[in-house]
Amino acid sequence: MSQKIVTRFAPSPTGYLHIGGARTALFNWLFARGHGGTFLLRIEDTDRARSTPAATAAILKGLDWLGLDYDGEVVSQFDRAPRHAEVAREMLARGAAYKCFATQEEIEAFREAARAEGRSTLFQSPWRDADPATHPDAPYAIRLKAPREGATVIADKVQGEVTVRNDQLDDMVCLRSDGTPTYMLAVVVDDHDMGVTHIIRGDDHLINAARQMQVYHAMGWEVPVFAHIPLIHGPDGKKLSKRHGAVGLEEYQAMGYPAAGMRNYLARLGWSHGDDEVFTDAQAQEWFELEGIGRAPSRLDFKKLENVCGHHMGQIADDDLIAQISGYLEAAKLPALTGTQLAALHKALPVVKSGAKTFGQLLEKARFALICRPVEIDAKAMAALDPVSRGILKELTPQLQNASWVREELESVVARVAEAHGLGLGKIAAPLRAALAGRAATPSVFDMMELLGREEVLARLSDQAA
């Protein structure tokens, strides 16, 4: 592509960052980064009643967690209101818009009559072609003089060629009678002024594209490339909502999913590159093209998300993993790890990170390294500590006392004691797990023993020996 690619993510700060919005941001980021382009962020905060600084902060925090860096400063749509009004007045001067003096009461009366008569409720202003000499000295809105004949055709990179009959579109208000610009105008002016070349957004905006194109045409501006992506549905195929579980991006961080896994999974949610399921950011940026986006809504699949995250968990560098776990604990409002615990976790990572799909699972596997004596034992593990097992632990302890603390030797000592009692290694591993970790499911007994060290292992075994 000869043209420099510029994409944007433009959320409204009226609540949390929805996972669908996060995927939209990701697609824009991948497309821009993969083509050496620019990825911009605009906060569409024109709805002053619903926009909050807390929601803006949540959006910025969510993008930061997901690892989507944007270029330049964040643009506030509200701050640009004077520029939006200027464009509305320019369209008026060009004859591409007109002053409409119709009141809200008159518009509603028109619609009621149209409903009663079974006509279209699309308001057709009587002021569209009125002689300026007849204009009253009263507040007016500026309306776009939209074409009434023919059709507006959206050449969409995902949806294909979408045709909207112009008689289905009204003369949209660009500037209200109180002088404030409408969202529909503001979006176009901002995208034009920011140099946006590709608008990648949810397909719930598809009909907006037809109306917004008319503003581009009225101003003689080049229309960007549109790509309207299908929404994300829940596992049941219905529109994603709270009943499906987590829908806000921060909830996924609090559930312990690594950001790299989320990026990979969200990229595959509606876009594909052959049969590739698991890939790096570099691969995603290289491969991502708009043609790879499907038209059908994608379904959220938590099992698949976990599997992808499990793969990425094993690839994250240990120092980075520790930092991400600290971020997870904060997001989940769980107690932070102490310096001693962080050091112990770092040491245990090679043993515990494979097989873990979330940070919560990883910390549960690493529990043996994070806890202090006396070890709190859950009911399932306690079942393995019957009097016979406790007797075996008591017998084992002095033999371990004199063993050289290497895996082969530890395995040999435990195997000898098991054999003396006519038991398999598995039978003696269960009470060992209980004594060392307080859980029935743990990493390898010998991995735990090596990591904990002689003194700590002997002390934990003595606590549980008969």
TrEMBL record:
<dbReference type="InterPro" id="IPR004527">
    <property type="entry name" value="Glu-tRNA-ligase_bac/mito"/>
</dbReference>
<dbReference type="InterPro" id="IPR014729">
    <property type="entry name" value="Rossmann-like_a/b/a_fold"/>
</dbReference>
<dbReference type="InterPro" id="IPR020751">
    <property type="entry name" value="aa-tRNA-synth_I_codon-bd_sub2"/>
</dbReference>
<comment type="subunit">
    <text>Monomer.</text>
</comment>
<dbReference type="GO" id="GO:0006424">
    <property type="term" value="P:glutamyl-tRNA aminoacylation"/>
</dbReference>
<feature type="binding site">
    <location>
        <position position="242"/>
    </location>
    <ligand>
        <name>ATP</name>
    </ligand>
</feature>
<keyword id="KW-0648">Protein biosynthesis</keyword>
<dbReference type="Pfam" id="PF00749">
    <property type="entry name" value="tRNA-synt_1c"/>
</dbReference>
<feature type="short sequence motif" description="'KMSKS' region">
    <location>
        <begin position="239"/>
        <end position="243"/>
    </location>
</feature>
<dbReference type="GO" id="GO:0008270">
    <property type="term" value="F:zinc ion binding"/>
</dbReference>
<keyword id="KW-0547">Nucleotide-binding</keyword>
<keyword id="KW-0030">Aminoacyl-tRNA synthetase</keyword>
<feature type="domain" description="Aminoacyl-tRNA synthetase class I anticodon-binding">
    <location>
        <begin position="338"/>
        <end position="463"/>
    </location>
</feature>
<keyword id="KW-0436">Ligase</keyword>
<dbReference type="InterPro" id="IPR000924">
    <property type="entry name" value="Glu/Gln-tRNA-synth"/>
</dbReference>
<feature type="short sequence motif" description="'HIGH' region">
    <location>
        <begin position="11"/>
        <end position="21"/>
    </location>
</feature>
<dbReference type="GO" id="GO:0000049">
    <property type="term" value="F:tRNA binding"/>
</dbReference>
<dbReference type="InterPro" id="IPR020058">
    <property type="entry name" value="Glu/Gln-tRNA-synth_Ib_cat-dom"/>
</dbReference>
<protein>
    <recommendedName>
        <fullName>Glutamate--tRNA ligase</fullName>
        <ecNumber>6.1.1.17</ecNumber>
    </recommendedName>
</protein>
<dbReference type="Pfam" id="PF19269">
    <property type="entry name" value="Anticodon_2"/>
</dbReference>
<dbReference type="InterPro" id="IPR001412">
    <property type="entry name" value="aa-tRNA-synth_I_CS"/>
</dbReference>
<dbReference type="InterPro" id="IPR033910">
    <property type="entry name" value="GluRS_core"/>
</dbReference>
<comment type="function">
    <text>Catalyzes the attachment of glutamate to tRNA(Glu) in a two-step reaction: glutamate is first activated by ATP to form Glu-AMP and then transferred to the acceptor end of tRNA(Glu).</text>
</comment>
<keyword id="KW-0067">ATP-binding</keyword>
<keyword id="KW-0963">Cytoplasm</keyword>
<comment type="similarity">
    <text>Belongs to the class-I aminoacyl-tRNA synthetase family. Glutamate--tRNA ligase type 1 subfamily.</text>
</comment>
<dbReference type="InterPro" id="IPR008925">
    <property type="entry name" value="aa_tRNA-synth_I_cd-bd_sf"/>
</dbReference>
<dbReference type="GO" id="GO:0005524">
    <property type="term" value="F:ATP binding"/>
</dbReference>
<dbReference type="GO" id="GO:0004818">
    <property type="term" value="F:glutamate-tRNA ligase activity"/>
</dbReference>
<feature type="domain" description="Glutamyl/glutaminyl-tRNA synthetase class Ib catalytic">
    <location>
        <begin position="4"/>
        <end position="306"/>
    </location>
</feature>
<dbReference type="GO" id="GO:0005829">
    <property type="term" value="C:cytosol"/>
</dbReference>
<dbReference type="InterPro" id="IPR049940">
    <property type="entry name" value="GluQ/Sye"/>
</dbReference>
<dbReference type="InterPro" id="IPR045462">
    <property type="entry name" value="aa-tRNA-synth_I_cd-bd"/>
</dbReference>
